[in-house]
Amino acid sequence: MATISSITKQRLFALLRLALVDIDYPRTHFDHMSDSKWQDIYNAALEQGVLAFAYDGIRKLDEDHQPNLEIKIQWAYNVSYIEKLSKKQLSTAQKVVDTFTKQGINTLILKGLSLAALYPEPEHRQSGDIDIYLMGDFERGNEIVKSKGINVKYDYFVHSEFVVDGVNIENHHYFVNPDVNSTGRYIECVLEQMVAHSTDHPTVEGALIPSAEFTALFLARHSSWHYAREGIKLRDICDWGVFLNHYRDSLECNIVMEHLENSGLARYASIITTIAEQILGIKLPLEFTDRYIELSERVLKDILSFENSEKHTEMNFLRAFMFKIRNRFARKWCYDKVVPDSYWGNIWYSIKGYITNPRAIKKAKL
Questions:
Q1: Which residues form the domain of 172?
Q2: pLDDT tier at 365 (50, 70, 90 boundaries)?
Q3: Positive or negative, the Cα torsion across 351, 352, 356, 359?
Q4: Mean pLDDT in the chain?
């Protein structure tokens, strides 16, 4: 992906602020905008998973600052597709929850569908898989799914996977990977204790949503794991910022900060908090002793420019393996400076995983 220019970045951030926290925009950013400049914003928003949020911002611009009708129609068409997928996810989640509820199993919904409820326009938060936790009934839940004639895959020990109505469901045995290092083990242990404080989900009847403290630690660990290995998007940073802003008055920040420090996640959490504050233009409630300003700029630049080629290319086994090796070398600095994971330990962990499950080398989540 081509590097996003400074002015395109500023314009995209202005639209996100308008949409997500209703902060007014600098008029000069959108004076005399050409179609090609709007296309630059469109491409960046699409790549970063924030297309619908940017469109929400556009609708709040002054009339003379909005793009021409053709661009707005293109944008609106793709936003309507995101809305359609969101509604399908919601209905599928309800179907899955109803199935487990009838069998006396409580369903906790993680990540996407729980975070979406925090946004001004929940259906505009793009989601991929539906992540669930069956409150200790992992295997029983899998057997119930199998009894419906649905194939259950066990490619990754953290969760099983199955498809309902074309939507991929990840049934978590563990919340995060506890097998790779002390950070994962620590966070998994804390989350297992915190899950008892889950409450009713706001949009899926009969489902549960984790506590704010659980979500803060879960997001920090999940995001750090993916960032170093394969990169994250602005959508992930928006999730973090919108979440912290939503719970600013009720989040037990002292508890969250204690666990971030003890797990080694404080530096990464500080960095993504700094980036989220830059994007949204607001102060977020977590207070960090160290704010890594220069490193935060490097991470933001990396987020806006890094493309994980292995996720978008059909390739044979050998090419897929070589792509992964090259990618891991390119991401070494992330392990050295940003996340609490060991670079070589992570390499060894991946090798062991590929030996036991060679199909994982070619597995791609689009």
A1: 103-210
A2: very low
A3: negative
A4: 90
Question: Lowest-pLDDT range, 234-243, 329-338, 341-350?
Answer: 341-350
Query: Quick one: angle between helices 6-21 and 266-280, nearest 10?
Result: 90
How far apart are alpha carbons 297 and 83 in whole angstroms? 32
Say if residue 327's pLDDT is above 90: no
Q: How many CB atoms lie within 10 A of CB 70?
A: 10
Same domain, 217 and 200: no
Task: Note whether residue 88 is domain-resident.
Answer: no
Q: What is the pLDDT of residues 280-312, one digit of tens each?
A: 999 999 999 999 999 999 999 999 987 765 454
Pick from 286, 244, 284, 299: which is nearest to 118 by CA? 244
Interacting residues of 18 by C-beta distance below 8 A, sequence separation 6+: 24, 25, 56, 57, 60, 61
Looking at the structure, tell me whether residues 220 and 356 fall in a common domain.
yes
**Of 360, 67, 115, 318, residue with least CA distance to 222:** 115
- In 3D space, the residue among 203, 266, 269 whose CA is nearest the CA of residue 236 turns out to be 269
Grouping H, G, I as helix, E, B as strand and the rest as coil, residue 359 is helix
Burial grade of 66 (CB within 10 A; 0-12, 13-18, 19 or more): middle
Q: Which two tokens stand for residue 349?
A: 């962990």
pLDDT at 122 over 70: yes
Residues 192 and 215 in one domain: no
Q: Output phi, psi for 108, to 5 deg.
A: -95, 130
Q: Which residues pair with 159 in a beta bridge?
A: 156, 172
